[in-house]
Amino acid sequence: MTYSFSAVVEKEGKLFVALCPELDIASQGKTKNSALENLKEAVRLFLETASPAELKVARSSRPFVTTLEVAV
């Protein structure tokens, strides 16, 4: 089975951190691509060991991403 999740990648210091917000799983790497590959592996390992209830939540959860303006 193939799942589709969101990934957010940010540079933190010398590393890139990749986050899957639906599952609250994160990983890191020296490059954006390595951070994403490491995140894919972490998500795959989670999905291989998740309970049916956890998989149901994973399939139904989608983050809402938008921009906001703040006046200071």
Outline of this structure?
By secondary structure, this protein is α+β, with helices and mostly antiparallel strands.
Based on helices, strands and strand pairing, what is the structural class? alpha+beta
Low-confidence stretches: none
Return the CATH architecture. 2-Layer Sandwich
Q: N-to-C SSE series?
A: EEEHH
Mean pLDDT: 92
Query: How many whole angstroms does the radius of gyration measure?
Result: 14 Å
> Outline, from the CA principal axes?
flat
Detailed description of the structure:
The structure is a single chain. The protein has helices at 32-49, 52-60, and strands at 8-12, 15-20, 25-29. It is of the alpha+beta class and 72 residues long. It has one domain (8-60): Double Stranded RNA Binding Domain. A hairpin with a 4-residue loop joins strand 2 and strand 3. The longest helix has 18 residues, at 32-49. The chain is flat. The chain starts with 7 loop residues before the first strand and ends in a 12-residue tail after the last helix.
Keywords:
single chain, 72 residues, alpha+beta, Double Stranded RNA Binding Domain, 3-stranded antiparallel β-sheet, 2 helices, 3 strands
